Amino acid sequence: MKSRRNYWVVLSVALGIVLGGHQASAQDPVDEGKDIAPAVTISDIEILNNRLNAVEKSSAVLSTEHNYLDIATQKGDVVFKIGGVVQGDYRSYFSPGTKYDDYLPIGSGSYPEEGAAGATTNKSTTTFLDRKVRLDLVALFDQLVGLRYQAEFGATGYAIQDAYAFVKADTAFQFQLGKFKVPVGLERLQSDTDTLFVERALPTDLAPNRDLGAEITGSPLDGVQYVLALTNGTPDNYTPNNADDQSLTNGKEASGRLFLTPFKSGDSFLKNLGVGISGAWAWDVNWNTNALPNYFVTSLGQQQFFAYRAGVSPQGDFYHWSPQGYFYNGSFGLLGEYIKSVQVVGTAKASALNLAHQAWQLEGSWVIGGKASYLGAVADTPLDLSKGHWGALEVAARVHQLTLDPKAFNANRAVNLA
C-alpha cells in the first residue's frame, strides 16, 4: 500500500505542474525576451515521417546470391551485382616440347608439311599462370531492364567477355543485345565458377564461344526453355574482337537451343533431369585471317594440338548440332553432351573440302556434405571452422574424346589443310 500511495502522490504532483503550467501560460502575458520553442504541428510530423521513409528506401541492402555480392535498395527496384573469377595455374610437363614437330600428329613422318615453321608460342613450359582474372558487373532496374559487363585481365590480356543489355518483358520472353555466349555447348554455357573442372572438356573446342548479336530467350511453359540468337558468326572455340567483326562480310550465324526439364515442378526422382538439343548455321562468313576456322586445345595445360594452315579459310556454310543433358539427385551429378561441327574450308572454293569434326564427353560427380547441380555444388552447411563446419567436398571424373576429320590431313594434295 505504501508504494501505491507514493505512486498517486507523484502522479498528482506531475498533473498539478502540467495544469499549473497551462494556466500560467494562458493568463500571463508573453515575455518577448524569453526563448519559446516553436509548436510542433501535424504537418511537421508528416514531413519528418516522409523524410524518414525516403532515407529508409534509399539505404542500401547487402546480400549474396550465387557468386555475386548484391547491393540493392530497400524496395529492390535497383540491384547492382559484383562478381569475379580468379584462377591461377602452375603447369609442369614431363616431356616439354621445344619445336613445332613435337606437336604434329602421330605418324606424321610421311606428311609433306613436317618440319614446317609453326607458332613459337605453341610450346609447353613450366610456369605459373594467371589463367583467369575476371570482373563481372550486373545492374538491374525494376527487375525488368539490365546490363552486364564482364572483362578478362588475366594471361590473355584485357578482353571484353560479355557486354550486353537485356529486357525481361516476361518469363516467356527476354531480349538481349550485345556480346554474349552463343547457345550451343552445354558446358560452354556454364559459368566458370560452376564447372566441375578448371578447364572445360574437348567438346567445347567445337562449340562457338562468345559473339556479337541479338538473342531472345524464355520459358513459355514450366520445364521448357528456348533460346534463339542471330550473331556475326565465329569460328569454333573463339571469341572475335573488334578487328574480326569489322572484317566480316554480310553473312551471319543463326543458333538455337531447346532444353527440357519435364519433372522440375514435382518431387520425382527425375526432378533435376534435363535434356536438350542445340544447333547453329553460319552462312557467307569471311573471318579475319587472324581468326582461322578452328583453334583446338587440350583440356589440361591448354596446349594447342590442331589448327588450320595459313591461307585456309571458310569457303561455305558452317553447321553445328549438339544433343545434351544432365541429371542431378542429391549428392550425385551427371552431365553429357555430343557435338558435331561441319564446315567447308580450303584455300579456294574450287578445292574446298567439307570437314566434319565431332566430340563427346561424360562427367560425373559426388558431393560429400552437399548437393550437386548444374549451377555448381551447394554445401549443406557453409564453411565455418569456428563452429566445426567443413563445408563440402566434390569428387569428379570425366571421359571425353575429340575426333578430327582425317580429310584435313590426307587430302591428296601437296599441302594439307591443317
What brief labels describe this structure?
single chain, about 425 residues, mainly beta, two-stranded antiparallel ribbon, 3 helices, 19 strands, globular
Amount of helix: 10-25%
Rough shape? Answer: globular
Secondary-structure-based class equals mainly beta
Regions with little confidence, pLDDT below 50 for 5+ residues: 1-28, 99-122
Q: Report the sheet-strand fraction.
A: 35-45%
Average pLDDT figure: 79
| Strands, count | 19
User: Radius of gyration, Cα only, in angstroms?
Assistant: 32 Å
- The DSSP helix count reads 3
Largest sheet, spatial ordering of strands: 1-2-3-4-5-6-7-8-9-10-11-14-15-16-19
| Gap from first CA to last CA | 106 Å
Largest pleated sheet:
15 strands, antiparallel
Secondary-structure element order, as H and E? HHEEEEEEEEEHEEEEEEEEEE
What does this protein look like?
With 418 residues, this protein is mainly beta. It is 11% helix and 43% strand. It is built from 3 helices and 19 strands. The chain has helices at 2-27, 42-58, 242-246; strands at residues 60-65, 68-73, 78-91, 127-141, 145-152, 159-170, 173-181, 210-221, 224-231, 252-260, 272-283, 295-297, 304-307, 313-329, 332-346, 353-368, 370-371, 378-379, 393-403. It has a 15-stranded antiparallel sheet with strand order 1-2-3-4-5-6-7-8-9-10-11-14-15-16-19, with no helix packed on it. The chain has a two-stranded antiparallel ribbon with strand order 12-13. The chain is globular and about 100 Å long. The termini are far apart.
